[in-house]
UniProtKB/TrEMBL annotation:
Residue span(s) of domain Plasmid replication protein origin binding: 50-150
Gene3D superfamilies in alphabetical order: 3.40.1310.30
InterPro entries in alphabetical order: Plasmid_rep_OBD (IPR002631)
Organism: Streptococcus anginosus DORA_7
Pfam families referenced in this protein's UniProt entry, alphabetically: Rep_OBD
A molecular function (GO) term: DNA topoisomerase activity
Biological process terms in GO annotation: DNA replication
Name recorded for this polypeptide: Plasmid replication protein
GO CC term (a single one): extrachromosomal circular DNA
Length: 177
């Protein structure tokens, strides 16, 4: 039996291939041309997340496509989405996976030694690789939030801390060589 995980905050990641999504045939067809249908796919995912809460409850949500990530220095990885969800109350990870239409293993609950506020910063920063300058830097404008968050303002407000972390990481990586 799988361990039950209950949390308010979730991160998910999944390739943009129909076989990986437990959606209706019609909804899966959007994935066949994800570049054209990206906005519809994002809206579909957001609407599915919203089914878990009451209409007047606020859910912070952010999603982005990663289509320029490189694996082992040379090969482009399959295009995939990364998403961030912060619910107003706790949910079982299995329930969130079911609503998203992905396997449980594609979802995690962020953890950080810095506490809840820091996990939010880390999770949101990862959407564009803001703390990892060795990875492709996605524009903040690529992140869709459905007005639950001003993502570009968030990045600008935390820019100094994100750049400090990236610089420290770069120094640590150079020392390993």
């Amino acid at each position: 039996m799988k361990k039950r995980i209950i949390n308010k905050r979730f991160l998910f990641e999944q390739q943009l291939k129909p076989k990986f999504w437990d959606w209706s045939v019609q909804d899966k067809q959007l994935l066949d041309d994800w570049e054209t249908n990206k906005d519809k796919i994002f809206r579909l995912i957001f609407d599915r997340v919203r089914t878990l809460v009451e209409e007047d409850e606020f859910v912070e949500f952010a999603i982005v496509v990663h289509d320029r990530d490189i694996s082992y220095g040379a090969k482009l990885v399959e295009p995939h989405v990364h998403g961030y969800i912060d619910f107003p109350k706790k949910f079982d990870l299995s329930k969130v996976a079911s609503v998203l239409g992905v396997e449980r293993e594609r979802i995690e609950t962020p953890k950080s030694k810095g506490g809840r506020a820091y996990t939010r910063i880390n999770a949101l920063a990862y959407l564009i690789h803001a703390k990892d300058k060795d990875k492709y830097q996605y524009p903040a404008s690529d992140v869709e939030t459905f007005d639950t968050l001003d993502y570009e303002a968030f990045i600008n407000q935390n820019k100094e801390d994100l750049e400090k972390y990236a610089a420290k990481k770069n120094v640590r990586n150079q020392m390993k060589v």
